[in-house]
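A quick aside before the break. I want you to see a complete sequence-to-structure record at least once, exactly as it would be stored in a machine-readable document. Don't worry about memorizing anything.
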Amino acid sequence: MADNDVDIKGMKEFQDALKNIQRDFPKEVKKASEQIARDWIAAARNKANAQAKDAAAALTIGNDSEGATLVNSHPMFYGVEFGGQARPSTMHFPPYLGQRGYFLFPAARENADKFAKIWEAAIDEATKAWDHKE
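That is the input. The structure line, written in tokens, reads:
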């Protein structure tokens, strides 16, 4: 009878690396999301006009189980970010821009490459346990 055991070269190392990746990935992603949130808020604050300065200053970083979130607590945030003027009660806001935004979302678009590099670095760091080459 033939032996059914199969020896796959590097399998134990691969399984060990997967355990490390599974352990490290959430930590690295959370750290990256916090860095992106800090940078995004800073960029938004720099981009905000005089009317939006208070709303931008009120932006903070929150956390959930998967990483950082942006939290806005300013009552005028949505008006100064997306605009208004569709009814008399919103005439003090700039014209409505839809999802384009005035300071927060433009800051994200302008920094998209930087944020992508932060994500890529986090993934590289989390998966460095498996850098097998032969």
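Two observations worth writing down. The first strand starts at residue 60 and ends at 64. Residues 12-126 form one domain. We'll return to this after the break.
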